[in-house]
## 1
Amino acid sequence: MKYTEEHEWLRVEDDVVVVGITAHASEQLGDVVFVELPEVGTEVSKDDDAVVIESVKAASDILAPIDGEIVEVNDVLADEPGKVNEDPEGDAWFFKLKPSDPSQMDDYMDEAAYKKFIG
Amino acid sequence: MSDLKTTPLRDLHVELGGKMVPFAGYEMPVQYPLGVMKEHLHTRAKAGLFDVSHMGQVIVYAGGSYEAAALAMEKLVPVNLAGLGKNRQRYGFFTNEQGGIMDDLMIANRGDHMFVVVNAACKEGDIAHMREGLGDCSVDEIEDRALLALQGPAAEAVLSAIVPEAAEMKFMDVGMFGSDYDELWISRSGYTGEDGYEISVSNENAVALAKALLAHEDVEPIGLGARDSLRLEGGLCLYGNDIDSTTSPVEAALTWAVQKVRRRGGEREGGFPGADRILDEFENGASRTRVGLRPEGRAPMREGTPLYAAAEGGEQVGHVTSGAFGPTIEGPMSMGYVSSDLAAEGTQLFGEVRNKRQPVSVATMPFTPANFKR
């Protein structure tokens, strides 16, 4: 797993990268009530807005962590946004992305570094 | 948070795991470990305990006559206060010369004096306004008492175990009762749309009373986050968002709070700041109106969202003043102001969220049925 300073996690599965948010981020957000996912087939660049999350507190954007094409989205979250709080690092992934340049992941933190980052 | 004021319950909030935030100059809990959604649902299902000690408690005394205090206060508040029965309270607001609302408040007849509760953020201004406007009355801020709210269908059973008289009270009754926590000043009212009470208790007894209420298995502590979603589902205004110094009572759809006796042709017509504009709007209507709004789908339409009559083009016709997800209605809800010709229930409008116009319809409030013991 790799982690971004935006509190996203990236997990490599064969030739795609699965993206979600960390448990720490989901706690900070509070109860999630709405998730808007990108369309499959969308080409995204690093730092593009990819997902909108609304919690009981506020709206937040989840950024594309690397360049690539969205190849699958987790439609379950549209009906059950609360899963983001229940299992943020498991079932509640947001999208799978086919990276155009996998080396962009090298800059991100490993688990130990992320734990240190969130203190 | 060293510049912030605290309430007598501050350490208890921290002990209970409350996440403390600055609010109206006070350090207050926005949520507890249960979280906003579950705190909200718990309050509607059983009972929630809220610390509202940041609000201002004020006694207006006019030589031992409630009526004299009421008649003086009617010069600032467009409400029938002289006609308020003993041990009853009523909702009202201070108006300004432009006919806007300076603050909303609760006003109680306590026999030989008047007791009022005002919003935390406005209390200094309100007290100065009362001292200036109430002539010979004395206006005393009560700073040695905390204020708790116990809200929800289990509130009566929980509180009457401590104060048996609470069970006999009806919605908007007030009373002063002896208890193991010294004298409690209780009103059967609140800010959630549920049955419940607000309980004024001496600072020294506040923690013990809060702990006694929380010891009941049906009671959970509730933070400001759920307080906001509960009041919005209940269709209740938040001062500073849904009403302010630019919104008149008619625009704000609070005409029910201005009794006939203060309107044109009434026995004590007018005589409050902004009466010309406000009474004129009673007869001729206002150009904009506060309405409830139900967005389609699940995405909340938050404060500031501009509203349009058409999916594309056209002038803005209003804006959202409060918006959130309603845990009980399991969907988004908002309130806001729209041009009065678009205020009818069911009118289809569009709110611009993230540069896209999303459908939203005008809906009746409260969004959840009120559950008062009348």
Note: The helical segments of chain A are 23-29, 76-79, 83-86, 111-118.
## 2
Amino acid sequence: MEQLFSDYTLRMVALGSAVLGIVSGGLGTYAVLRGQSLLGDAISHAALPGIAIAFLLTGGKTPLALMIGAALAGWLATLWIMSVTGTTRIKYDSMLALTLSVFFGIGLVLLTYIRQRAGAAQAGLDTFLFGQASSLVRRDVVTMAVPGGAALLLMALFWKELKLLAFDPEFGRTLGLPMRRVDLFLTALLVVAIVIGLQTVGVVLMSAMIVAPAAAGRQWTDTLWKMVLLSAGFGAAAGVTGAVLSSTGTGLPTGPLIVLCMGVIMVLSLLFAPNRGLAARHLRARRSTGRFQLETVLLDLYALGMQHNDPLRPHPRGAVQAMRAKEVPVDRLLDRLEKDGLVRRAASGWALTDAGLRNVETLKEERT
Amino acid sequence: MTQGEMEIQLLAVVVAAACALPGTFLVLRKMAMMSDAISHAILPGIVIAFFLTHNLNSPLLILAAAATGVLTVMLVELLMSTRLVREDAAIGLTFPVLFSIGIILIARFAGDVHLDTDAVLLGEPAFAPFDRLIVGGRDIGPRALYIMSAVGLANVAFITLFYKELKIATFDAGLAAALGFGPVLIHYGLMTFVSITAVAAFDAVGSILVVAMMVAPSAAAYLLTDRLRDMILLSVALGAASAVGGFQMARLFDVSIAGAMATASGLVFLAVWLGAPRYGILAGRQRRIRQKWEFAETMLAIHLFNHEGLPEADIEHRIGHLEEHLSWERDFARRVVRRAQSNGLVQRTNDEDEDDLLALTPQGRKAASEAIENL
């Protein structure tokens, strides 16, 4: 931790990863909500030929030029996916897989072409495959933060439109909003988020930066702005933790560590988020089964009594147990009901109290 | 071509054909992205098996990779079964985490592993001829060619043996379950073969381009036919063609063979998307144009039919009036009349006159009354 403030390289790496986490987490929210989690994967792979062409055109490794090339290629890939799925019966998933691999193949062809032409001058271009967070310097962080910040700002400015797009595009259309254009606009923002991450975590792992923070954030809230803030926070936390961890271990790559941290946050969210989380769900289920069983025993005692036209007539526990499967813990349930003053022990078994009878009356109403 | 090049070319074709077989079902079952997920997620399986055997050619690697592939599918389904994330998010979460574990394992033990992350991701068939299979002291060809052929034959066997089951499970999972064909078992069986194919194709084309070889030819074939058998055969053929075209392109420009194969498969798909006889966009555009004219001709026939023999026919049955009544441009109206005339629906009373009286032929009358009935 101390290193984080003293070590310049580590500070830059952590800062860059945090910026990336915030931007991809925030914008990934929309991708996940719209069921487009895998679009990020397609865009990040499709960026490769753009990077290569930008390199060929500018003849050097200017981060900004490469980023613009990557963004254009990613954007083009998305348009191609949309137009093929719109004009044929080819499904969305086929187009995602096809586009990401074919564009990547084109990128690879161009990279090998550059390699044999430019020789060693292209050193560093390969880092886009796996990312190389440890090489981030101040200039890189600025190149990431400026477009990323702009994308987040635009997201805030068009908050209402994007929210409509995510939840009810049909309604947006009836309001007269150009939803198709809003869709293209959101995709452009997503492309920015992906492109700024390529140098840090690489082509393959970038999709996790889009999906995981948002999917984790989704578990904690049902409110859009809270989800955006949460997933940006999760993204940043995973980014910084991954960067710090990779600086402590020997030769552990930053990108995969960030993704693993993100995976841990994801699993914890799935398990322990209030309301939606699996633990909360399990507890709720147990509590409601428990309550249901208590009510059932109460109703059973009443039904047994009514066979003798006396709801308060006592019955032995064996008779109560016989009403239900033997897995139902009748003894424990009766003890509990006694503590609540709804049943009482009588000489010949268990009987409803007056309070218990009143309870039965309301239950009968509830259940019909 | 030299013998080495011939061998690379042959390997490329076998890889493409072997990938296209399970690929067809992935495309039809809307699970194309599972090929991407599996081809990445099997990395930790390969790495661990490699640590155990210290041999990249061990059959254990294929088994471990297949097991990891199935594990990936199970993890995705476990995530989905919580109903907390959707299928796309479940896939997008699972494979990067598994892939990261694989990369970290490689990096952590980089010292004693000859397993390069670049090679895993990219693959390069150019090195295949250097690794020969020697049986009884005789060199019988590149080892990769034999492995890939065996996997291809296994795919053929799987699809032929379970053709009926695969077909029903793909097109009507509910019916398959009702008939007792076990769609879940078929699903996992298919995923096992996808995993085996992915790991075998790893060396040759790498984990990303194997996706292209699985999906692109099958997607193209999907636009060319409505029959499953034809689609499988077509996707194998298109895959093989991409392999040949890609390798020749790579030879010409001296670039990555695997990348060129994927590029070629993309070009094949592009050509099919544009030019497919029924489902291509050019055919679709032509169909729309034809339908526009056919519709206009029918409109004209109905219009004439409605006013036929009535007093207003003298006004209504003139080209000039169509502009007003059907709000057609004069030029368009003229062209519609000319088409209807040559199709034998409409007669003109005086060919010299621009605005002469139009009359339905018996054929035109029949077309109009049929069209009205169909409404």
Note: The mean pLDDT of chain B is 88.
